[in-house]
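By way of example, we now present a protein record of this kind:
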Amino acid sequence: MTVRTGIVCPASGIWKVVGYPSTTAPIAKGNRMPPYNGKAVTWQLIQYA
């Protein structure tokens, strides 16, 4: 499952930025997906919470 910055998070869990540089972050369902390094990115769910 992938979601872009600014979209409402569809599932709570650990999300990873697709591409480089990458990071992971715990994001709760209902929150807006954040930017990374000041840029819009694609987040991929790697683990459900």
